[in-house]
Q: What sequence folds into this?
């Protein structure tokens, strides 16, 4: 394995060598406890925002809006559009939108509704 998937941020401070690339380099720059202390106070959005009770993806909504505008300018959809639901795979317990769907290939994930081109299956918009 070239670079193993870590089971969390704390695993990057492990002294055990796993994989081909050199690991345990984070502790040369910052201690693990110091990073967790900083992460507890470092926020890029206001958690008390009234938007939080309405929109579950409010922290990343500006990024999603820019992506949808950019992709809409670069691709013209076919006249026949399919509306469907999709599951974005994620097993993270920190994802408040995570759902279990037994009928999907990826059982755990975030359920989104998409508008896709019926001919090419290109997702032009999702909510």
A:
């Amino acid at each position: 394995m070239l670079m193993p998937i870590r089971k969390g941020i704390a695993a990057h401070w492990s002294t055990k060598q796993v994989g081909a690339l050199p690991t345990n380099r984070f502790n040369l720059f910052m201690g693990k406890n110091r990073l967790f202390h900083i992460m507890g106070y470092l926020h890029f959005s206001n958690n008390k925002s009234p938007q939080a009770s309405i929109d579950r993806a409010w922290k990343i909504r500006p990024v999603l809006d820019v992506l949808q505008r950019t992709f809409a300018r670069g691709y013209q959809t076919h006249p026949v559009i399919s509306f469907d639901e999709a599951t974005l795979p994620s097993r993270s317990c920190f994802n408040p939108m995570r759902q279990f769907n037994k009928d999907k290939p990826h059982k755990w994930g975030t359920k989104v509704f998409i508008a896709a081109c019926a001919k090419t299956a290109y997702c032009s918009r999702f909510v």
Strands lie at 81-89, 98-100, 108-117, 123-126.
